[in-house]
Specification:
Elements: H1 2-18, H2 24-48, H3 54-62, H4 72-94, H5 100-116, H6 125-133, H7 141-166
Helix pairs in contact: 2-3, 2-7, 3-7, 4-5, 4-6, 4-7, 5-6
């Protein structure tokens, strides 16, 4: 038992030594990205009274911290994940499946589908969960979901391509 624990600790230490942490410049870019994205979304969602959708976008913007570089495949995966999750939320709402239990079932379903098609982005399941709780309509897919994810990914793209060079 002791040798297994020591071996596990040695492997963990090796993994930590080989991990690459973001540079200070990338950390600053990711923090500015989060502040800018969420500030824009606070204004948009306040004006349209859809503030309930802010948590998943805050989580998505925060996921940029360990690796803030913009990548097209990752952005498409995030956008697709949000669209699928919001579609499931709308479907549950259309069939009058509301409440905490149905929101949980819808979240499980959307995460399972996203994992199966290999586009999972865990914060996106909140779009399903919150959509079912808020009894959303079909426009929910366009706004606030698509609007929000485009803002987060757009700000990340601009910060990575243009902002990082100026820091």
């Amino acid at each position: 038992m002791f040798s297994l624990t020591v071996l596990t600790l040695l492997e963990f230490n090796k993994d930590i030594c080989t991990m690459k942490f973001p540079s200070k410049k990338k950390k600053v870019v990711s923090i500015i990205n989060l502040i800018t994205s969420i500030s824009i979304l606070v204004v948009i969602t306040s004006l349209t009274r859809t503030e309930f959708i802010l948590p998943p976008f805050l989580a998505t913007a925060a996921t940029k911290y360990p690796d803030p570089d913009w990548r097209r495949p990752r952005s498409f995966s995030i956008i697709t994940s949000y669209v699928i999750c919001s579609l499931i939320g709308v479907a549950f709402s259309v069939f009058h499946l509301y409440g905490l239990i149905f929101a949980s079932v819808a979240a499980f379903l959307s995460f399972t589908i996203c994992v199966i098609i290999d586009i999972e982005h865990p914060p996106a399941i909140l779009a399903t969960f919150l959509g079912v709780l808020e009894k959303v309509g079909p426009l929910y897919i366009l706004h606030p979901v698509l609007t929000g994810v485009v803002v987060v990914e757009g700000v990340n793209y601009i910060m990575t391509k243009y902002g990082e060079q100026r820091l």
